[in-house]
Amino acid sequence: MSTNTAALENADRNAYRPDQGVAVATAESASPMRYAVPLGRLLFALIFLNSLVGHFSPDAIAYSAQAGVPMAALLVPLSGVLAFAGGLSIALGYRARLGAWLLIAFLVPVTLKMHAFWTIADPMARQLDQVMFFKNVSMLGAALMIAYFGAGPISIDARNRARRNG
pTM of this prediction? Predict the structure, then answer.
């Protein structure tokens, strides 16, 4: 085996492994870019953390009931708690995969029920709901990636995994 091949294999062995959620000390993990993942998690989670109070407002419950949400007085606040719990989990990087699945469970029905732009006749309202629909679809994509890759470095999950692994 050549020296270059061995060096590449060792570099690969020491690289961040998304499936393990732990970064081994390398030049890359010491870089300021390592903060991109927790910052990304926080920015992604903010919309869910910020929406909790609104899910308990009479106006949001009435709007959802008008949109055809069954048992809106129960389901709208419950969906707010679900979104907040998922967002907090991802922001902290604590059980982020579970948090991502909570957000997926929130986003799928909300997106299909509350942003069914294809049912709206008014062009302006239709365009607004189409934008909201695709915003939710993109957040769904990010939640699916977090469900697969986990919290990444600089997270409670990574710290706990490092403690378990020695």
Answer: 0.81
